[in-house]
Amino acid sequence: MLQNNLFLTSNVDDKNKFIDYVNRAANTIADSYTDSRAYSGLTPQELKELIKETPLLPESGIGFDSVLEKVKRIVLPNLLKVSSTDYMAHLHSPPLMESLISELILATGNQSMDSWDQAPIATEIEVDVINQLCEIYNLPKDSDGIFTSGGTQSNLMGITMARDWFCNTKLDHDVKLLGLPQEYNKFRLYTSEVSHFSVEKSAHLLGLGYNSVIKVPVTNDQKMNTEILRDLIIKDLESGFLPVAIIGTVGTTDYGSIDDLETLSEICQEFGIWLHADAAYGSGLILSQTYKEKISHISKCDSITVDFHKMFLLPISCGAFFLKDKTNFSHLTLHADYLNREEDEEEGYTNLVGKSMQTTRRFDALKVWMLFQSLGKKSLSDTIDKTLNNANYFYKMVDSNPNFQVVTKPEISSVVFRYSTNKLSDDQVDTINKRIRRELIHRDGIVIGQTIFDGRVFLKLTLLNPLVEHKHLDNLINVILEKSNYN
């Protein structure tokens, strides 16, 4: 027998129950923040044992109170506290308070962004937000965009658009209707050797394969070497290959390096190639009054990936994809009588599914809409500037310390470094750095990243939290040196 008060409705009892649930959940969540540690320290094995006691689907439900109590005991204490100043590991931001409320609203409303009649006001807000974001990124009036789940989906869309545009304009071939052309195994996509793995993943999903992706060497500052890129394109053309797109990175995952979009645009113009910018990380710089010139050439790109759940400090997931020429969205458009009827669109009803790879899609535009208006340009700029200033400070501290080795000066807010000493072999130093990271997680509740550079193990900070102060960074250096046993 179903219980009463299942949903939030206009009924007074339903409203009261909703308010009660939200208040109790909010209090339980807030009470779980008992210290500044980023993580409780439990190992994978300990977490598995903790979860074992709870069957997923009991014969009879145990009720909200009992479930909330289990969440309080098992889940909340062991969640990663991404708002902690001790969390500095990944492109995984602490969500700003205002955006948590927008999540509650969009989850409660549960709008589906595929058709206007499933999301009337949500559709109109997303269209308006996209239009204003196009202006913020200095895109032309014929540009357009769509909200996505994040960088991987946006990059897939960008490479899909590049492939179909190339086939239509260069080969007079309609991929949407006919599938891949016979020449598909000659297609080439160029990206730096430190770009995001979603480029290769996209090539696989699009039927082009990993071998179509040419990984271009980088300079010492971890940017795509444009001279080598140009030579590779010329050699490929001479060998009968078909250059389709260049994928420039605006903030590589490890180093935060920004490829030279101006030169990449010139190369694309010279050879008739599509330019996609993976700006999932660095797109937030557009809001900085101090650092926005770092990405001033992003408007030259044919397509752009933006993530709002990174530098913009919004909850996962919230991304967007932009096209300089909105007519290229036609590569995705397909009409269905039950969803996006052409007659409705002719009368002014916007059905966003025609621009998206997703059908059911969340009203994530609300998070941007509420946050931007709540904080405004000055606060958002100051927030982003703080993270870049922190990265520069940490870089100077470790670069000047003989106990550390640093890869490159940060361009955004990531620093790749490691404890190093000539008293030990490289293999021994690798082992020490691995141990340091594990001990930080499980003994100190401090979470930092780890990566590989030049075949060796390095540690990584990705500083997105504006609450991090120099004292936190100084403390981290001291703790690492203490754990190295060779300070």
TrEMBL record:
> Which stretch is the leader sequence?
none
- Put simply, this protein is called Diaminobutyrate decarboxylase
Gene Ontology CC annotations of this record: cytoplasm
Q: Which UniProt keywords apply?
A: Decarboxylase, Lyase, Pyridoxal phosphate
Q: Which GO terms describe its biological process?
A: amino acid metabolic process; carboxylic acid metabolic process
Q: Which Pfam families match?
A: Pyridoxal_deC
Protein's organism: Thiospirochaeta perfilievii
Under the heading Gene3D superfamilies, the entry gives: Aspartate Aminotransferase, domain 1 (3.90.1150.10), dopa decarboxylase, N-terminal domain (1.20.1340.10), Type I PLP-dependent aspartate aminotransferase-like (Major domain) (3.40.640.10)
